[in-house]
Amino acid sequence: MKMQLALDDISLADALVLGQKVRDYVDIFEIGSPLIIEAGMDAVREFKQKFPDKEILADTKIVDAGEYEADLAFNAGADYCTVIGITDDLTIKECLKAAVQNEKHVFVDTINIQAIDTRIPELEELGVDHFSVHVGVDQQSVGKTPLETLSEVRKVSKNAVISVAGGINLSTVHEYLSLGADILIVGGGINHAQDPVAAAKELAAKVHHSKIEAS
Ligand SMILES: O=C(CO)[C@H](O)[C@H](O)COP(=O)(O)O
């Protein structure tokens, strides 16, 4: 299992400093949606330049203009971008087209998909092979977690790469380790920890150990 650090409510300057301190523990740096809104694709460019050995995900959460917006992320150096799963199929297909042209990948974010059992097969029919099971921060504030959706997606998906995000931290990570996700995403659980570097190290030990157990 890989660990993805979501850099959300943090400045680009602070994100680069944190990235340097935790680079040994992180497999994928996520330039989170708030950081993209704040700093644009410069954040993606800077991370790819400073951390060329790491994968970079631009959490673009695309809902329209699929090819154009996905291209912006890939041209800036992203290995992955994201598109919202409840948007129109045309937009999903345009993102997939950009991914194929750039030899990169698109994660479909499951946020607010109501019928996982029908929407996941529909998306796979379009060619989707990466899902990000995600409960957003607003939904987290009323107690929702991505646990149930992760199990559902794992059950109905043919063979997709699956990441999971939504309030995961040192106290809850054990609930996710055996549910079959390929990538565990942590944002606030590291960024808001009293000691972010120690949190990243401890989480990485659990996540990477789980990879060894699974193989
Ligand atoms: O996509 C996001 C918010 O929309 C976050 O990056 C994702 O939820 C991970 O952050 P956290 O661990 O704080 O929930």
Task: Give your account of this protein's structure.
Belongs to the HPS/KGPDC family. HPS subfamily. Pathway: One-carbon metabolism; formaldehyde assimilation via RuMP pathway; D-fructose 6-phosphate from D-ribulose 5-phosphate and formaldehyde: step 1/2. The protein starts with a strand and ends with a helix. It has 215 residues and is an alpha/beta fold. The mean pLDDT is 96. Helix 6 (116-126) links the parallel strand 5 and strand 6. The protein has an eight-stranded parallel beta barrel with strand order 1-2-3-4-5-6-7-8, surrounded by six helices. The protein has helices at residues 12-22, 33-39, 42-50, 66-76, 89-102, 116-126, 137-140, 147-156, 188-191, 196-214; strands at residues 2-7, 28-31, 55-62, 80-84, 105-109, 130-134, 161-165, 183-186. The chain contains ten helices and eight strands. The protein binds ribulose-5-phosphate.
Structure keywords:
10 helices, binds ribulose-5-phosphate, alpha/beta, hexulose-6-phosphate synthase activity, 3-dehydro-L-gulonate-6-phosphate decarboxylase activity, 8-stranded parallel barrel, globular, 215 residues, TIM Barrel, 47% helix
CATH superfamily: Aldolase class I
Low-confidence stretches: none
What average pLDDT do the residues reach? 96
Total strands: 8
Widest beta sheet: strand line-up: 1-2-3-4-5-6-7-8
| CATH structural fold name | TIM Barrel
Q: What is the C-level CATH assignment?
A: Alpha Beta
Rounded to the nearest angstrom, the distance between the terminal CA atoms is 10 Å
Taking all Cα atoms into account, the compactness measure Rg is: 16 Å
Distinct small molecules bound, one entry per kind: ribulose-5-phosphate
CATH architecture: Alpha-Beta Barrel
Q: Tell me the domain tally.
A: 1
- Count, helices: 10
Shape: globular
Order of helices and strands: EHEHHEHEHEHEHHEEHH
Helix and strand composition category? alpha/beta
* Largest sheet entry: 8 strands, parallel, barrel
In helices, the fraction of residues equals: 40-55%
Q: Determine the strand fraction and express it as a percent band.
A: 15-25%
Pfam families: OMPdecase
Domain Orotidine 5'-phosphate decarboxylase: 2-203
Keywords: Carbohydrate metabolism, Lyase, One-carbon metabolism
Family: Belongs to the HPS/KGPDC family. HPS subfamily.
